[in-house]
Write a structure and sequence with these properties.
The longest helix is centred in the N-terminal third of the chain and has 14 residues. Helix content is 24%, strand content 36%. It has a single domain, classed as Thiol Ester Dehydrase, Chain A (Roll), CATH 3.10.129.10. The chain is of the alpha+beta class. The relative contact order is 0.24. The chain has a 5-stranded antiparallel beta sheet, covered by helices on one side. The chain is elongated, with a radius of gyration of 16 Å.
Length: 132
């Protein structure tokens, strides 16, 4: 990956877990989304959509689950990315528990830039400049 590593802290609440107290697996996609938004900035994403009619959609997501994350954990979402061609970004994200020697969960997320008509569009300079 080309970028530096970005960190985003997530507190695990009871509502995030299943009956056994372990985080329900789809919730990791929400945590990854929040961490990516933190890298780019919600204001930038909002401006991109409102003023240019452009946004990003998940094209492909692959996840690995290696250790349970449980109620009351505070985890670090480590995120880094690369621009992968004219239309796509590739994000590598990992969920780390405190004092862990390996990530609990990993995600490889490919995002494409699209317009309001759901047509592929080149990643705008605003995002290129931000993600350099």
């Amino acid at each position: 990956m080309n970028s530096k590593v970005y960190h985003f802290s997530v507190q695990i609440y009871y509502e995030d877990t299943d009956h056994s107290g372990v985080v329900y697996h789809p919730n990791f996609l929400k945590y990854f989304e929040r961490a990516r938004e933190h890298v780019i900035g919600s204001h930038t994403l909002s401006t991109l959509w409102d003023e240019h009619g452009l946004g990003f959609a998940v094209y492909k997501a692959e996840m690995g689950f290696f250790d349970g994350v449980v109620f009351a954990d505070i985890v670090d979402i480590k995120t880094h990315y690369k621009i992968d061609g004219k239309f796509m970004t590739h994000w590598r994200q990992e969920v780390w528990r405190e004092n862990a020697v390996k990530p609990a969960v990993t995600g490889d997320i490919q995002m494409v830039c699209m317009d309001k008509d759901k047509q592929l569009r080149p990643i705008p300079e605003l995002i290129y400049d931000l993600l350099k």
